[in-house]
Amino acid sequence: MNLLPEFLSASAFALWGSPVTWLELVASALALVMVGCNMREIHWGWPLAIVSSLLYVVVFANARIYGDAALQVFFAFVALWGWAQWLRGFRADGSALRVSRLSPRGTAYALLACAIAWPVVALFLRRFTNTDVPWWDGFVTGLSLVGQFLLGRKFIENWLIWLAVNVVSVGLFIHKGLWLTTALYAVFAVLSVAGFLAWQRRLPKATTKAVPA
């Protein structure tokens, strides 16, 4: 049974022979505004992330990209945590949560988390779902978990992880014929660079000292 309003499931238009539903259109628009908020450290991006993620659960599930579909459910819950972090979070030393760099140890942990998450997620998808792209789906899903944590804690390196995720996602969505989402993630890739540069300008001027995760 379709629990969505009928108009969301309907085709809004077609791109290169593939239909683009109103559902995908609305989810894409919300996601784009969300990234804009993240770049400017506007906390309202987090509730937008919740709504967009829940819509994309259906979009990705219909395309048999189950890792990304499950990831959107995770994002919806983690967005609540991220919202709370941006509103009331603080560092281990008690200072306010602000844009910072990872320490060398934090960077090593982040890279290790990416290296572990990718194959673990990919093997899970290969074993328990009928996805035809377990390794690409696993890469996007695994690295997004790390990127979301770093974003919630305002570490500038989150943008570099999102850049890798977005570039790979473009190829994945081309393969699936999700052309509007392909274009969206191409824009996201550009915004990942813009976000990194914007946050670099927000780093404390008095010190370049990195902080642990």
UniProtKB/TrEMBL annotation:
<dbReference type="InterPro" id="IPR006419">
    <property type="entry name" value="NMN_transpt_PnuC"/>
</dbReference>
<comment type="function">
    <text>Required for nicotinamide riboside transport across the inner membrane.</text>
</comment>
<keyword id="KW-0813">Transport</keyword>
<feature type="transmembrane region" description="Helical">
    <location>
        <begin position="159"/>
        <end position="176"/>
    </location>
</feature>
<comment type="similarity">
    <text>Belongs to the nicotinamide ribonucleoside (NR) uptake permease (TC 4.B.1) family.</text>
</comment>
<feature type="transmembrane region" description="Helical">
    <location>
        <begin position="20"/>
        <end position="37"/>
    </location>
</feature>
<feature type="transmembrane region" description="Helical">
    <location>
        <begin position="69"/>
        <end position="87"/>
    </location>
</feature>
<protein>
    <recommendedName>
        <fullName>Nicotinamide riboside transporter PnuC</fullName>
    </recommendedName>
</protein>
<keyword id="KW-1133">Transmembrane helix</keyword>
<keyword id="KW-1003">Cell membrane</keyword>
<keyword id="KW-0472">Membrane</keyword>
<feature type="transmembrane region" description="Helical">
    <location>
        <begin position="108"/>
        <end position="128"/>
    </location>
</feature>
<dbReference type="Pfam" id="PF04973">
    <property type="entry name" value="NMN_transporter"/>
</dbReference>
<keyword id="KW-0812">Transmembrane</keyword>
<dbReference type="GO" id="GO:0034257">
    <property type="term" value="F:nicotinamide riboside transmembrane transporter activity"/>
</dbReference>
<feature type="transmembrane region" description="Helical">
    <location>
        <begin position="44"/>
        <end position="63"/>
    </location>
</feature>
<feature type="transmembrane region" description="Helical">
    <location>
        <begin position="182"/>
        <end position="199"/>
    </location>
</feature>
<feature type="transmembrane region" description="Helical">
    <location>
        <begin position="134"/>
        <end position="152"/>
    </location>
</feature>
<dbReference type="GO" id="GO:0005886">
    <property type="term" value="C:plasma membrane"/>
</dbReference>
